[in-house]
Prior knowledge:
- Chain A is an all-beta fold.
- In chain A, about 0% of the residues lie in helices and about 55% in strands.
- Chain B has strands spanning about 5, 10-15, 20-25, 30-40, 45-50, 55-60, 60-65, 70-75, 85-95, 100, 105-110.
- At the A-B interface, strand 4, strand 5 and strand 10 of A face strand 4, strand 5, strand 9 and strand 10 of B.
Amino acid sequence: NAGVTQTPKFQVLKTGQSMTLQCAQDMNHEYMSWYRQDPGMGLRLIHYSVGAGITDQGEVPNGYNVSRSTTEDFPLRLLSAAPSQTSVYFCASRDWTGVSYEQYFGPGTRLTVT
Amino acid sequence: KQEVTQIPAALSVPEGENLVLNCSFTDSAIYNLQWFRQDPGKGLTSLLLIQSSQREQTSGRLNASLDKSSGRSTLYIAASQPGDSATYLCAVTEGAQKLVFGQGTRLTINP
């Protein structure tokens, strides 16, 4: 298994541009999520999905859209990039072990908005 | 609102020492607690997961404990090595949907 993969690894955008961060997992996990990591703020949940066709907002959803058309893919769209969205973005999927949940993270996308 | 705190924010110790990292949380109604390791510029790697009904979990030189009633967890690293240098994050799962992270402890092991 490749686990959770993210593309691109690095991206620089100008204010106002849009882009999509890609996330895919090959573990057949129903639950996927997006986090952003900022210095001094820890990781914060942006959006999550409990299965294909079902998404919901997390703690910091403004400025981001998601969709889940397949179990494998969960892209994150920035509609109009702002400098405040400069961050490292992590995608995660979650497995039910039979007694508990365990999270698996992708390698991250480093985004800079100028 | 659940808050997770990790102390200290940074720790530097000589190689070979045993050490303890601390994690506290404000709401004891958690589903589980997970310890992660993050290397610079990399993603998160799960180290240990403790269910709310468990008291501890062990993996190699790592031992994590959980005291849900007091809202505390510790990660014990035995015989530290330079390769253990990384940032260690703890996170609690609330209900069935949300991970709440601490800000991490940056650990440096000096040869």
